[in-house]
What does this fold into?
Amino acid sequence: MPNGQTSFIDRVIQEHGLDAYRNFRTSFPYYGYHASAPSFPYNATVPCRDCSNELHHENMNFMNFYESHYVHANPQPLRYGDVPILHMERERRMISLCPSCVDTCTWCSDPARVALQEYDSVVLCESCQGDAVMCVSCDEVIHCDNVYTFTNNDYDSYCRGCFRSVVQRCDECDATWHEDGEPACECSTHSDLVNSYSYKPTPIFRDINSYEFNRNGDTHAHTPFMGFELEVEAGRNDRHSGAQLFETQIMNDNLYLKEDGSLDNGFEIVTHPSTLEYYQSDFDWSSFDELRALKFKSWSTRTCGFHVHISRDAFYTKQMHKRTNSSPHLMGFLLFIYKNASEVEAISGRNSSYGRISDSELENVYEYSRFRGHSERYVAVNTLNAKTIELRCFKGSINKNRILGYLEFVEAVYQYTKTNRITKLKDSMDFLAFTQWCEVQPKYDNLLNIIRRSGALDIE
It folds into this structure.
Protein backbone atom coordinates (compact mmCIF):
# COMPACT_ATOMS: atom_id res chain seq x y z
CA MET A 1 0.00 0.00 0.00
CA PRO A 2 1.27 3.56 -0.77
CA ASN A 3 2.59 5.77 1.98
CA GLY A 4 2.97 2.80 4.31
CA GLN A 5 -0.80 2.32 4.60
CA THR A 6 -2.05 -1.14 5.62
CA SER A 7 -4.72 -2.78 3.47
CA PHE A 8 -8.18 -3.31 4.89
CA ILE A 9 -7.63 -7.08 4.78
CA ASP A 10 -4.43 -6.84 6.80
CA ARG A 11 -6.01 -4.53 9.34
CA VAL A 12 -8.98 -6.84 9.88
CA ILE A 13 -6.62 -9.75 10.39
CA GLN A 14 -4.40 -7.75 12.75
CA GLU A 15 -7.27 -6.54 14.91
CA HIS A 16 -9.70 -9.47 14.73
CA GLY A 17 -7.70 -12.51 13.67
CA LEU A 18 -7.63 -14.70 10.60
CA ASP A 19 -10.83 -16.57 11.55
CA ALA A 20 -12.82 -13.37 11.62
CA TYR A 21 -11.67 -12.43 8.14
CA ARG A 22 -12.19 -15.97 6.79
CA ASN A 23 -15.77 -16.05 8.12
CA PHE A 24 -16.39 -12.60 6.68
CA ARG A 25 -15.08 -13.62 3.26
CA THR A 26 -16.87 -16.98 2.95
CA SER A 27 -20.36 -15.78 3.93
CA PHE A 28 -22.56 -13.90 1.54
CA PRO A 29 -25.78 -11.90 1.81
CA TYR A 30 -28.87 -14.12 1.81
CA TYR A 31 -30.55 -13.97 -1.59
CA GLY A 32 -33.94 -15.46 -0.67
CA TYR A 33 -35.38 -18.95 -0.59
CA HIS A 34 -35.18 -19.42 -4.35
CA ALA A 35 -31.54 -18.46 -4.77
CA SER A 36 -29.14 -21.36 -5.18
CA ALA A 37 -25.88 -19.35 -5.08
CA PRO A 38 -24.58 -15.76 -4.97
CA SER A 39 -23.48 -14.05 -8.19
CA PHE A 40 -19.76 -14.12 -8.97
CA PRO A 41 -17.52 -12.99 -11.83
CA TYR A 42 -16.87 -15.82 -14.31
CA ASN A 43 -13.38 -16.70 -13.05
CA ALA A 44 -13.96 -16.03 -9.34
CA THR A 45 -12.73 -18.54 -6.76
CA VAL A 46 -14.23 -18.92 -3.29
CA PRO A 47 -12.73 -20.46 -0.13
CA CYS A 48 -14.55 -23.22 1.76
CA ARG A 49 -15.91 -22.08 5.12
CA ASP A 50 -14.84 -25.25 6.93
CA CYS A 51 -11.52 -26.31 5.41
CA SER A 52 -10.35 -23.12 3.55
CA ASN A 53 -9.89 -25.12 0.35
CA GLU A 54 -10.37 -22.58 -2.46
CA LEU A 55 -12.18 -23.67 -5.62
CA HIS A 56 -13.90 -22.09 -8.60
CA HIS A 57 -17.32 -20.87 -7.45
CA GLU A 58 -19.15 -23.28 -9.79
CA ASN A 59 -17.54 -26.23 -7.93
CA MET A 60 -18.63 -25.04 -4.50
CA ASN A 61 -21.79 -25.77 -2.54
CA PHE A 62 -23.71 -22.81 -1.12
CA MET A 63 -25.80 -23.54 1.94
CA ASN A 64 -28.31 -21.32 3.71
CA PHE A 65 -27.30 -21.20 7.34
CA TYR A 66 -28.16 -19.24 10.47
CA GLU A 67 -24.94 -18.03 12.04
CA SER A 68 -23.25 -15.24 13.93
CA HIS A 69 -20.82 -13.49 11.63
CA TYR A 70 -18.85 -10.27 11.36
CA VAL A 71 -20.35 -7.32 9.45
CA HIS A 72 -19.59 -3.64 9.13
CA ALA A 73 -21.66 -1.50 11.45
CA ASN A 74 -24.32 0.33 9.47
CA PRO A 75 -24.52 3.12 8.43
CA GLN A 76 -21.11 4.29 9.67
CA PRO A 77 -18.60 1.77 11.03
CA LEU A 78 -17.26 2.48 14.47
CA ARG A 79 -13.52 2.86 14.48
CA TYR A 80 -10.78 1.83 16.78
CA GLY A 81 -8.13 4.28 15.75
CA ASP A 82 -8.10 4.05 11.97
CA VAL A 83 -9.46 0.45 11.79
CA PRO A 84 -13.17 -0.25 11.12
CA ILE A 85 -14.68 -2.45 13.78
CA LEU A 86 -16.62 -5.51 12.64
CA HIS A 87 -19.79 -6.23 14.57
CA MET A 88 -21.28 -9.63 15.34
CA GLU A 89 -24.80 -10.24 14.05
CA ARG A 90 -26.92 -13.39 13.71
CA GLU A 91 -28.38 -13.57 10.23
CA ARG A 92 -29.41 -16.17 7.72
CA ARG A 93 -26.58 -16.18 5.24
CA MET A 94 -25.17 -18.30 2.48
CA ILE A 95 -21.87 -20.00 3.19
CA SER A 96 -19.53 -21.65 0.71
CA LEU A 97 -18.54 -25.29 1.25
CA CYS A 98 -16.36 -27.53 -0.88
CA PRO A 99 -17.73 -31.00 -1.86
CA SER A 100 -15.64 -32.82 0.76
CA CYS A 101 -17.22 -30.78 3.55
CA VAL A 102 -20.83 -31.52 2.58
CA ASP A 103 -22.78 -34.76 2.92
CA THR A 104 -26.43 -35.76 2.53
CA CYS A 105 -28.74 -35.84 5.55
CA THR A 106 -29.75 -39.43 6.32
CA TRP A 107 -33.25 -38.42 7.37
CA CYS A 108 -34.36 -35.73 4.90
CA SER A 109 -31.65 -35.89 2.16
CA ASP A 110 -30.89 -32.17 2.46
CA PRO A 111 -27.21 -31.02 2.44
CA ALA A 112 -25.46 -31.36 5.79
CA ARG A 113 -22.18 -29.83 7.00
CA VAL A 114 -19.69 -32.54 7.93
CA ALA A 115 -17.89 -30.28 10.41
CA LEU A 116 -21.02 -29.87 12.54
CA GLN A 117 -21.95 -33.55 12.91
CA GLU A 118 -22.58 -34.58 16.52
CA TYR A 119 -23.19 -38.30 15.93
CA ASP A 120 -20.98 -40.97 14.41
CA SER A 121 -23.74 -43.27 13.20
CA VAL A 122 -25.85 -40.86 11.16
CA VAL A 123 -25.38 -37.68 9.07
CA LEU A 124 -27.89 -34.94 9.89
CA CYS A 125 -28.57 -31.46 8.57
CA GLU A 126 -28.97 -28.46 10.85
CA SER A 127 -32.75 -28.89 11.14
CA CYS A 128 -32.75 -32.65 11.76
CA GLN A 129 -29.87 -32.42 14.21
CA GLY A 130 -32.02 -30.24 16.42
CA ASP A 131 -34.63 -33.03 16.57
CA ALA A 132 -32.17 -35.88 17.20
CA VAL A 133 -31.91 -37.84 20.45
CA MET A 134 -29.62 -40.79 21.25
CA CYS A 135 -30.98 -43.96 22.84
CA VAL A 136 -29.25 -44.50 26.19
CA SER A 137 -29.18 -48.27 25.67
CA CYS A 138 -28.02 -48.94 22.10
CA ASP A 139 -26.79 -45.43 21.08
CA GLU A 140 -29.12 -45.38 18.08
CA VAL A 141 -29.93 -41.82 16.97
CA ILE A 142 -33.70 -41.35 16.80
CA HIS A 143 -36.11 -38.49 16.14
CA CYS A 144 -37.45 -36.81 19.26
CA ASP A 145 -41.01 -37.74 18.21
CA ASN A 146 -40.07 -41.44 18.43
CA VAL A 147 -38.46 -41.33 21.87
CA TYR A 148 -39.74 -43.57 24.68
CA THR A 149 -39.27 -42.62 28.33
CA PHE A 150 -40.35 -44.19 31.58
CA THR A 151 -43.05 -42.61 33.72
CA ASN A 152 -40.69 -42.03 36.64
CA ASN A 153 -37.66 -40.97 34.59
CA ASP A 154 -38.05 -38.42 31.80
CA TYR A 155 -34.31 -38.01 31.28
CA ASP A 156 -33.39 -41.39 29.79
CA SER A 157 -34.53 -41.71 26.19
CA TYR A 158 -34.99 -45.11 24.53
CA CYS A 159 -35.68 -46.30 21.02
CA ARG A 160 -38.74 -48.53 20.61
CA GLY A 161 -36.81 -51.81 20.63
CA CYS A 162 -34.75 -51.06 23.74
CA PHE A 163 -37.77 -49.67 25.58
CA ARG A 164 -39.70 -52.87 24.89
CA SER A 165 -36.79 -54.99 26.11
CA VAL A 166 -36.48 -53.36 29.55
CA VAL A 167 -40.00 -52.12 30.26
CA GLN A 168 -42.20 -53.20 33.13
CA ARG A 169 -45.82 -52.12 32.98
CA CYS A 170 -48.57 -51.88 35.60
CA ASP A 171 -51.66 -53.74 34.43
CA GLU A 172 -53.94 -51.48 36.47
CA CYS A 173 -52.84 -47.96 35.50
CA ASP A 174 -50.48 -48.69 32.54
CA ALA A 175 -47.55 -46.87 34.18
CA THR A 176 -44.12 -48.00 32.96
CA TRP A 177 -40.75 -48.31 34.66
CA HIS A 178 -37.35 -49.86 34.02
CA GLU A 179 -37.11 -53.55 34.89
CA ASP A 180 -34.28 -52.76 37.35
CA GLY A 181 -36.15 -49.87 38.98
CA GLU A 182 -38.98 -49.38 41.42
CA PRO A 183 -42.63 -49.30 40.25
CA ALA A 184 -43.74 -45.88 39.05
CA CYS A 185 -47.14 -46.09 40.72
CA GLU A 186 -48.75 -47.25 43.96
CA CYS A 187 -51.27 -49.69 42.53
CA SER A 188 -52.04 -52.73 44.67
CA THR A 189 -50.60 -55.32 42.29
CA HIS A 190 -47.91 -55.46 39.67
CA SER A 191 -47.55 -58.40 37.32
CA ASP A 192 -44.12 -59.96 37.44
CA LEU A 193 -45.31 -62.87 35.31
CA VAL A 194 -44.47 -61.26 31.95
CA ASN A 195 -40.73 -60.81 31.61
CA SER A 196 -38.85 -58.44 29.34
CA TYR A 197 -38.06 -59.54 25.79
CA SER A 198 -34.41 -60.18 26.69
CA TYR A 199 -35.31 -62.68 29.46
CA LYS A 200 -33.66 -66.09 28.86
CA PRO A 201 -33.75 -68.59 31.73
CA THR A 202 -31.64 -71.74 31.81
CA PRO A 203 -33.51 -74.30 29.69
CA ILE A 204 -34.97 -77.40 31.33
CA PHE A 205 -35.19 -80.45 29.06
CA ARG A 206 -38.06 -82.91 29.49
CA ASP A 207 -39.34 -86.15 28.05
CA ILE A 208 -41.99 -88.52 29.39
CA ASN A 209 -39.43 -90.53 31.36
CA SER A 210 -37.14 -87.83 32.73
CA TYR A 211 -37.84 -84.51 34.45
CA GLU A 212 -34.50 -82.88 33.79
CA PHE A 213 -31.16 -84.00 32.38
CA ASN A 214 -27.94 -82.84 30.84
CA ARG A 215 -28.30 -81.72 27.26
CA ASN A 216 -24.79 -82.98 26.46
CA GLY A 217 -25.30 -86.43 27.97
CA ASP A 218 -24.72 -89.38 25.67
CA THR A 219 -28.26 -90.69 26.12
CA HIS A 220 -30.08 -87.56 24.98
CA ALA A 221 -27.54 -85.61 22.92
CA HIS A 222 -29.34 -86.33 19.63
CA THR A 223 -32.93 -86.27 20.89
CA PRO A 224 -35.12 -83.79 18.92
CA PHE A 225 -36.23 -81.55 21.78
CA MET A 226 -38.67 -78.83 20.78
CA GLY A 227 -39.71 -75.60 22.41
CA PHE A 228 -42.36 -73.28 21.00
CA GLU A 229 -43.03 -69.55 21.13
CA LEU A 230 -46.68 -68.55 20.84
CA GLU A 231 -47.72 -64.89 20.59
CA VAL A 232 -51.17 -63.98 21.89
CA GLU A 233 -53.15 -60.73 21.98
CA ALA A 234 -55.44 -59.67 24.81
CA GLY A 235 -57.32 -57.24 22.59
CA ARG A 236 -59.44 -55.08 24.88
CA ASN A 237 -59.19 -57.60 27.69
CA ASP A 238 -57.01 -57.50 30.81
CA ARG A 239 -53.58 -58.82 29.88
CA HIS A 240 -52.74 -59.54 33.53
CA SER A 241 -55.71 -61.91 33.85
CA GLY A 242 -54.40 -63.92 30.91
CA ALA A 243 -50.90 -64.06 32.36
CA GLN A 244 -52.23 -65.29 35.72
CA LEU A 245 -53.61 -68.42 34.03
CA PHE A 246 -50.04 -69.63 33.53
CA GLU A 247 -48.80 -68.93 37.06
CA THR A 248 -48.73 -72.61 38.08
CA GLN A 249 -46.90 -73.69 34.93
CA ILE A 250 -44.39 -70.86 35.41
CA MET A 251 -43.75 -71.99 38.98
CA ASN A 252 -43.28 -75.57 37.73
CA ASP A 253 -40.82 -74.41 35.08
CA ASN A 254 -42.97 -75.67 32.22
CA LEU A 255 -42.95 -72.32 30.43
CA TYR A 256 -42.46 -68.58 30.89
CA LEU A 257 -43.97 -65.37 29.47
CA LYS A 258 -42.20 -62.54 27.68
CA GLU A 259 -42.86 -59.15 26.17
CA ASP A 260 -42.69 -58.87 22.39
CA GLY A 261 -42.38 -55.59 20.51
CA SER A 262 -44.54 -56.76 17.60
CA LEU A 263 -47.63 -57.18 19.82
CA ASP A 264 -50.19 -54.49 20.59
CA ASN A 265 -51.46 -55.73 23.96
CA GLY A 266 -50.29 -59.26 24.57
CA PHE A 267 -47.39 -61.51 25.49
CA GLU A 268 -45.38 -64.43 24.20
CA ILE A 269 -45.69 -67.91 25.72
CA VAL A 270 -42.36 -69.78 25.61
CA THR A 271 -42.03 -73.44 26.60
CA HIS A 272 -38.92 -75.24 27.77
CA PRO A 273 -37.48 -77.80 25.32
CA SER A 274 -39.37 -81.09 25.47
CA THR A 275 -39.97 -84.14 23.34
CA LEU A 276 -43.12 -84.55 21.24
CA GLU A 277 -44.23 -87.39 23.53
CA TYR A 278 -44.05 -85.05 26.54
CA TYR A 279 -46.28 -82.47 24.83
CA GLN A 280 -48.74 -85.20 23.84
CA SER A 281 -48.89 -87.00 27.20
CA ASP A 282 -47.68 -84.90 30.15
CA PHE A 283 -47.92 -81.22 29.21
CA ASP A 284 -50.74 -79.26 30.90
CA TRP A 285 -52.87 -77.59 28.19
CA SER A 286 -55.69 -76.39 30.48
CA SER A 287 -54.43 -72.78 30.60
CA PHE A 288 -54.67 -72.51 26.82
CA ASP A 289 -58.36 -73.47 26.93
CA GLU A 290 -58.95 -70.89 29.68
CA LEU A 291 -57.08 -68.28 27.64
CA ARG A 292 -59.52 -68.83 24.76
CA ALA A 293 -62.43 -68.43 27.22
CA LEU A 294 -61.06 -64.99 28.15
CA LYS A 295 -61.29 -63.98 24.45
CA PHE A 296 -57.53 -63.88 23.91
CA LYS A 297 -56.62 -64.34 20.25
CA SER A 298 -53.74 -65.55 18.17
CA TRP A 299 -55.08 -66.97 14.89
CA SER A 300 -57.33 -64.06 13.88
CA THR A 301 -54.72 -61.31 14.37
CA ARG A 302 -52.22 -59.49 12.18
CA THR A 303 -49.45 -59.65 14.80
CA CYS A 304 -49.24 -63.20 16.16
CA GLY A 305 -47.14 -66.12 15.01
CA PHE A 306 -45.97 -69.50 16.27
CA HIS A 307 -42.31 -70.53 16.19
CA VAL A 308 -40.88 -73.98 16.88
CA HIS A 309 -37.26 -74.45 17.97
CA ILE A 310 -35.76 -77.91 17.52
CA SER A 311 -32.36 -78.70 19.02
CA ARG A 312 -29.48 -78.33 16.58
CA ASP A 313 -27.55 -81.17 18.24
CA ALA A 314 -30.21 -83.60 17.05
CA PHE A 315 -29.05 -83.08 13.46
CA TYR A 316 -25.37 -83.83 14.19
CA THR A 317 -25.38 -87.60 14.52
CA LYS A 318 -21.60 -87.92 14.24
CA GLN A 319 -18.75 -86.06 15.90
CA MET A 320 -17.42 -85.25 12.44
CA HIS A 321 -20.66 -83.44 11.60
CA LYS A 322 -20.41 -81.19 14.64
CA ARG A 323 -16.70 -80.59 14.15
CA THR A 324 -17.09 -79.58 10.50
CA ASN A 325 -20.53 -77.96 10.99
CA SER A 326 -21.86 -80.13 8.14
CA SER A 327 -25.11 -82.04 8.60
CA PRO A 328 -26.58 -84.07 5.71
CA HIS A 329 -29.66 -84.55 7.90
CA LEU A 330 -30.19 -80.78 8.27
CA MET A 331 -29.74 -80.30 4.53
CA GLY A 332 -32.40 -82.94 3.86
CA PHE A 333 -34.70 -81.25 6.42
CA LEU A 334 -34.35 -77.90 4.63
CA LEU A 335 -34.75 -79.49 1.20
CA PHE A 336 -38.08 -81.03 2.20
CA ILE A 337 -39.45 -77.74 3.59
CA TYR A 338 -38.54 -75.64 0.55
CA LYS A 339 -39.30 -78.27 -2.12
CA ASN A 340 -42.82 -78.45 -0.64
CA ALA A 341 -43.24 -74.72 -0.03
CA SER A 342 -46.90 -74.60 -1.17
CA GLU A 343 -47.90 -77.54 1.02
CA VAL A 344 -46.00 -76.14 4.02
CA GLU A 345 -47.75 -72.80 3.52
CA ALA A 346 -51.14 -74.54 3.54
CA ILE A 347 -50.27 -76.33 6.81
CA SER A 348 -48.82 -73.16 8.37
CA GLY A 349 -51.90 -71.04 7.62
CA ARG A 350 -49.86 -68.10 6.38
CA ASN A 351 -46.85 -66.92 4.39
CA SER A 352 -45.55 -64.00 6.39
CA SER A 353 -42.62 -61.65 5.87
CA TYR A 354 -41.49 -62.76 9.36
CA GLY A 355 -41.00 -66.34 8.12
CA ARG A 356 -41.41 -66.45 4.36
CA ILE A 357 -41.87 -69.78 2.60
CA SER A 358 -40.51 -69.90 -0.95
CA ASP A 359 -39.00 -72.56 -3.16
CA SER A 360 -36.54 -69.87 -4.29
CA GLU A 361 -34.65 -70.66 -1.06
CA LEU A 362 -33.68 -74.06 -2.52
CA GLU A 363 -30.53 -72.58 -4.03
CA ASN A 364 -29.46 -71.47 -0.52
CA VAL A 365 -30.04 -74.80 1.25
CA TYR A 366 -26.41 -75.91 1.15
CA GLU A 367 -25.15 -72.64 2.68
CA TYR A 368 -27.97 -72.61 5.26
CA SER A 369 -27.14 -76.13 6.43
CA ARG A 370 -23.36 -75.66 6.44
CA PHE A 371 -22.66 -72.04 7.40
CA ARG A 372 -24.77 -70.40 10.13
CA GLY A 373 -23.78 -66.88 9.09
CA HIS A 374 -25.09 -67.46 5.56
CA SER A 375 -28.69 -67.87 6.73
CA GLU A 376 -31.44 -65.30 7.12
CA ARG A 377 -33.66 -64.78 10.13
CA TYR A 378 -36.98 -64.07 8.41
CA VAL A 379 -37.28 -67.26 6.36
CA ALA A 380 -39.35 -70.38 7.00
CA VAL A 381 -36.39 -72.13 8.67
CA ASN A 382 -33.96 -69.87 10.50
CA THR A 383 -30.57 -71.56 10.98
CA LEU A 384 -28.75 -68.59 12.51
CA ASN A 385 -29.16 -69.72 16.13
CA ALA A 386 -26.25 -71.53 17.76
CA LYS A 387 -28.28 -74.17 19.61
CA THR A 388 -31.58 -74.49 17.73
CA ILE A 389 -33.13 -74.65 14.29
CA GLU A 390 -36.17 -72.35 14.27
CA LEU A 391 -39.28 -72.80 12.11
CA ARG A 392 -40.95 -69.37 11.90
CA CYS A 393 -43.63 -70.03 9.30
CA PHE A 394 -46.68 -70.99 11.40
CA LYS A 395 -49.71 -68.84 12.10
CA GLY A 396 -50.46 -68.37 15.78
CA SER A 397 -53.14 -70.49 17.43
CA ILE A 398 -54.34 -71.15 20.98
CA ASN A 399 -56.04 -74.38 19.88
CA LYS A 400 -54.28 -77.33 21.53
CA ASN A 401 -54.84 -79.68 18.59
CA ARG A 402 -53.38 -77.25 16.06
CA ILE A 403 -50.37 -76.54 18.29
CA LEU A 404 -49.76 -80.28 18.61
CA GLY A 405 -50.18 -80.57 14.84
CA TYR A 406 -47.43 -78.00 14.30
CA LEU A 407 -45.12 -79.84 16.70
CA GLU A 408 -45.93 -83.17 15.07
CA PHE A 409 -45.11 -81.71 11.65
CA VAL A 410 -41.66 -80.56 12.76
CA GLU A 411 -40.88 -83.88 14.42
CA ALA A 412 -42.27 -85.84 11.48
CA VAL A 413 -40.12 -83.97 8.94
CA TYR A 414 -37.13 -84.51 11.23
CA GLN A 415 -37.73 -88.28 11.45
CA TYR A 416 -38.65 -88.61 7.75
CA THR A 417 -35.47 -86.92 6.51
CA LYS A 418 -33.36 -88.89 8.98
CA THR A 419 -34.14 -92.27 7.45
CA ASN A 420 -32.19 -91.97 4.17
CA ARG A 421 -29.08 -90.38 2.72
CA ILE A 422 -29.46 -87.20 0.65
CA THR A 423 -29.09 -89.12 -2.63
CA LYS A 424 -32.08 -91.29 -1.71
CA LEU A 425 -34.07 -88.47 -0.16
CA LYS A 426 -34.21 -86.62 -3.48
CA ASP A 427 -36.52 -89.38 -4.71
CA SER A 428 -38.74 -89.25 -1.62
CA MET A 429 -39.36 -85.49 -1.26
CA ASP A 430 -42.89 -85.84 -2.65
CA PHE A 431 -45.44 -84.52 -0.14
CA LEU A 432 -47.86 -87.36 -0.82
CA ALA A 433 -45.13 -89.89 0.00
CA PHE A 434 -44.48 -88.02 3.25
CA THR A 435 -48.18 -88.06 4.15
CA GLN A 436 -48.43 -91.79 3.46
CA TRP A 437 -45.39 -92.32 5.71
CA CYS A 438 -47.09 -90.30 8.49
CA GLU A 439 -50.27 -92.40 8.20
CA VAL A 440 -48.46 -95.54 9.32
CA GLN A 441 -46.84 -93.79 12.30
CA PRO A 442 -48.67 -93.94 15.64
CA LYS A 443 -48.26 -90.32 16.77
CA TYR A 444 -49.17 -87.85 14.00
CA ASP A 445 -52.99 -87.76 14.14
CA ASN A 446 -53.21 -83.98 14.71
CA LEU A 447 -50.85 -83.32 11.81
CA LEU A 448 -52.85 -85.57 9.48
CA ASN A 449 -56.05 -83.70 10.41
CA ILE A 450 -54.40 -80.38 9.53
CA ILE A 451 -53.11 -81.79 6.21
CA ARG A 452 -56.60 -82.95 5.23
CA ARG A 453 -58.39 -79.75 6.30
CA SER A 454 -55.81 -77.42 4.75
CA GLY A 455 -56.04 -78.97 1.29
CA ALA A 456 -52.29 -79.55 1.18
CA LEU A 457 -52.80 -82.84 -0.68
CA ASP A 458 -54.78 -81.09 -3.43
CA ILE A 459 -51.91 -78.78 -4.41
CA GLU A 460 -50.45 -79.68 -7.80
User: Anything to note?
Assistant: Residues 214-218 have pLDDT under 50 and may be disordered.
